Amino acid sequence: MSESTEDPVFQLHRGGKMAVASTVPLTSRDDLSLAYTPGVAKVCEAIAADPAKVDDYTWVGHTVAVVTDGSAVLGLGNIGPRAAMPVMEGKAVLFKQFGGVDAVPICLDTQDIDAIIDTVTALAPSFGGINLEDISAPRCFEIEQRLDEALPIPVFHDDQHGTAIVVLAALRNAATLLDRKLADLRVVVSGAGAAGVAVTKMLVAGGVNPADVLVVDSRGIIHAGRDDLSPVKAEMAALTNPRGVSGGITQALAGADVLVGVSGGSIPEEAVAGMAPGAIVFALANPTPEVHPDVASRHAALVATGRSDFPNQINNVLAFPGVFRGALDARATRITDGMKVAAADAIAGVVADVLQADAFVPSPLDPRVAPAVAAAVAEAARRDGVARG
After folding, report:
1. Where are the alpha helices (DSSP H) in the chain?
2. How confident is the model at residue 5 (pLDDT cuts 50, 70, 90)?
3. Any catalytic annotation for residue 36?
4. Band of the pLDDT at 290, cuts 50, 70, 90?
5. What is the three-class DSSP state of 248?
6. What is the C-alpha to C-alpha distance for residues 6 and 20, in angstroms, rounded to an integer?
């Protein structure tokens, strides 16, 4: 896209989308002596004596780092850290708007796994949580896992878990609309990248029978007999498809009840037509869904996409602000599967009493969502034993 001074997109972004604002008055000498020297020394000494007090007396307790290496930005690909900054700023303002969470975009000029881990670990004392963003697979899996093990604060890769949480919420409500149970659904996940792997795990954690799940990558259905599987895909083969079904997306969808598309590819109409009656299609590639909603609607009872101009948008903003708000409120040391499932249940519950075929997912602008998610996540953190407050 070429830059234009009249383009409203460029006009909105000029100077960036965020700034730092003081929360205390600085209009007198007394103000200065309290906010800075000599008064600040008392707070420093208190934190040195009890490091947990950093959550009470600094921004750490309500601030997360939004970290990327620019390797998988939106649908733009590996565009680097500087070009990724507008997206990270956008993520930060969404945190503030929807969850009341302060966030700082950090774009790292390295794509080396060890360097990223070392850098984020060194920065971690300044934050109450780490939101990893737009880091390419399979590197993102190792980075998240190692940081989660190394740090005493929540680490959350939104491209994986934010998508997965909202997919589970949407599927809960879709199944309710159709008077179905998650445990009875045959599910196909098209895509085995970050989102596909997380969606698969989240659906199983939420009640879908793993024996009735097929995951499809660019080479076909994942099964234990394939000799080209990465460690992450081998994990998917061990979790799903115990019958060893093989073939492509058409074979996978034959008789399936649910399609979750997170591949960015294209799925032919005849494959969707082979699904079971009363099917559910979530075609989440953005801006071009794997199957156009109008086409999907000819063969499926319920359809959702990742786009805002069609009904039932599956949007990560329904999850991540409330997830971090709840984790920070509970002073959680990590984000558990139980916290993610609780978040999905809370999202689904916001519209559970008024479900319609064109509205079984809450609007991203619904002000009820983030508080409901935050409360559910904080409660789950305490239940799972990872809360410190």
Report:
1. 8-13, 29-35, 40-49, 54-57, 80-99, 113-123, 139-150, 158-177, 194-206, 231-239, 249-253, 269-273, 293-296, 320-329, 337-350, 369-383
2. low
3. yes
4. very high
5. coil
6. 27
Q: Catalytic one among 42, 53, 91, 201?
A: 91
Compute how many other C-beta atoms are within 10 angstroms of the C-beta atom of residue 49: 8
**pLDDT-based confidence at 210, cuts 50/70/90?**
very high
Q: How confident is the model at residue 264 (pLDDT cuts 50, 70, 90)?
A: confident
Instruction: Decide which of 3.30.420.340, 3.40.50.720, 3.30.420.40, 3.40.250.10 is the CATH code for 159-389.
Output: 3.40.50.720
CATH number attached to the domain at 8-153: 3.40.50.10380
- For residue 125, give the nearest of 48, 21, 39 by alpha carbon: 48
Say if CB 213 and CB 257 are below 8 A apart. Answer: no
Q: Which of 170, 157, 169 is nearest to 197 (CA)?
A: 157
pLDDT of 3: 65
Average pLDDT over residues 7-12: 90
Where along the chain do the CATH 3.40.50.10380 domains lie? 8-153
| Helices within 257-385 (DSSP H only) | 269-273, 293-296, 320-329, 337-350, 369-383
Residue where the block lists tokens 């060893």: 244
pLDDT of residue 123: 98
Instruction: For the beta carbon of residue 355, count every other beta carbon within 10 angstroms.
Output: 14
Q: Are 180 and 215 in contact (CB under 8 A)?
A: no
CA–CA dist 154, 386 (Å, integer): 10
% of the chain exceeding 90 in pLDDT: 92
Q: Write out pLDDT tens, residues 107-122.
A: 999 999 999 999 999 9
In contact, 322 and 99? CB cutoff 8 Å: yes
Helix (H) or strand (E) segment spanning residue 242? none
